[in-house]
Amino acid sequence: MSHAFYIYTSYGVTALITLAVIAWTLLDGRARRREMAELEAAGIRRRSSPPVTEGKQA
Amino acid sequence: MTESLAIRKFSDLANPTRFLALAERLLPWMAGLCCLLFAAGLYLAFTTEGDYQQGDTVRIMYIHVPAAWLSMMCYSVMALSAIGTLVWRHPLADVSHKAAAPLGAAFTLIALVTGSLWGKPMWGTWWVWDARLTSVFILFLMYLGIIALNRAMDDPSKAARVSSVLILVGFVNIPIIKFSVDWWNTLHQPASVIRMGGPTIDGEFLRPLLVMAMAYTLLFFTLHITAMRNEIWRRRIATQRRLAARTASREV
């Protein structure tokens, strides 16, 4: 393949940036899920959420 | 009647809770289809013929051109969302342009880096300050400025209003990027795919290019919906924490 350095570097950099954005988005989502679970465990829920146990929390 | 139904359906989607439910259902399918399109696109990108003049460097086009298209499309999505923020004050519009900005910056960076890596063997230089390259570089700086502005303010709705104005002012750069190759004498070539009179490139190159463009577009929407979902969650968490703190201080 001619100009292999330029071609593979282009694809490599593209893969790196794309994977970084995908990982950042997924990790951000995972962190938010964890935070919501912590709030839920502490009994802090959205006012509009349906009650889960004995209708104590609303 | 049909129109009012369409507006109602759109309003339903604009409700963050319904948006979250729809995102949960759509995202696995979008991600799966995106992977298939990337597999097909990359297969075509490395199995089709090289160009008789550019040789194998034409393969850089399959990542450079879709990234450049997406960099402009992402900004256009942000401009539409900015209108949603300023005209309807809709929180989902705020979330939309805030979530899109880092994605747009990433696609613009890909377009700049791959363009430079294609320019060196074909033009003999990594970079020139011609109208196309300079206007795309300004687009990249605009994205960084919008990200910084969004993060500089604690109140998300205030940040959204201020960044919406910046996004709409910056939108003037999009037609400048598109037509820079026609209005000025640039080292960058004029449009050869999206132009009056149809594409001028051979089907051998057009097929992988279009498949990769579809893969990139789907990747953008998949990541955009995921990032919007994350941002909605972030705002709900902040509100719940605030309410819990207020309730606790009242009890003390």
Automatic annotation (TrEMBL), chain A:
The keyword Amino-acid biosynthesis does not apply. Pfam families: CcmD. Keywords: Cell inner membrane, Cell membrane, Cytochrome c-type biogenesis, Membrane, Transmembrane, Transmembrane helix, Transport. It comes from the Bacteria. Its main location: membrane. The keyword Disulfide bond does not apply. Belongs to the CcmD/CycX/HelD family. This is Heme exporter protein D.
Automatic annotation (TrEMBL), chain B:
The keyword Ligase does not apply. Keywords: Cell inner membrane, Cell membrane, Cytochrome c-type biogenesis, Membrane, Transmembrane, Transmembrane helix, Transport. The chain crosses the membrane at residues 26-46, 66-88, 100-119, 131-150, 162-181, 205-227. It is a multi-pass membrane protein. It is found in: Cell inner membrane; Membrane. It comes from the Bacteria. It holds the Pfam family Cytochrom_C_asm. Residues 12-188 form the Cytochrome c assembly protein domain. Its main location: membrane. The keyword Calcium does not apply. Belongs to the CcmC/CycZ/HelC family. Required for the export of heme to the periplasm for the biogenesis of c-type cytochromes. NCBIfam families: ccmC (TIGR01191). PANTHER family: CYTOCHROME B_B6 PROTEIN-RELATED, HEME EXPORTER PROTEIN C. This is Heme exporter protein C. It comes from Rhizobium lemnae. The gene is ccmC.
